[in-house]
Amino acid sequence: VRCEESRWLVVVENSSSIYLSVVVIKYEFIRRAGQKYFVSFKERGSFSKAVDFCSQQGLQLALPQNEEENNALTQVFGEGDKTAWISINNRKAQGNFAVDLKNQPLVFTKWAEGQPDRSVQDTGCTMLTENGFWTVTQECSLQAYIICQL
Predict the structure, then answer these.
(1) Of the four, 68, 74, 81, 150, which is 20 to 30 A from 18 by CA?
(2) In terms of residue numbers, what domain contains 106?
(3) Where does the C-type lectin domain start and stop, copy by copy (predicted)?
(4) What predicted TM-score, i.e. pTM, was given to this entire model?
(5) Which of 125, 129, 104, 105 is nearest to 49 (CA)?
């Protein structure tokens, strides 16, 4: 059961055929795009903190698979810095940044002009910007929004 309107996310886990456990988490940001949910406490952190945080929640760092999902992610932005980390592995694959953190090929991209910046090589991290475009930065310690997906 997921309740988007009240900003509560309820996950029901079937731990056995007899017992059900319910986890209730109140997120500051919940958006549904198709069958996917994006959630955030609207906190900022480094790229490694973002990956670790989502993993600790049993989720994955967000990665839009189409324009609808990409647009949903930009709705997290408030005042100040308007960037969010996305789950792209910047190891070069056939000359470009083409795989996610699970080494799966990207099915959708929205690179800003001049991106991905190949001079960054495999040391960079990828951000979603407020206009919906993706950029690569070597500054993986920058404080950007952390958005997870389920």
Answers:
(1) 150
(2) 30-149
(3) 32-149
(4) 0.81
(5) 125
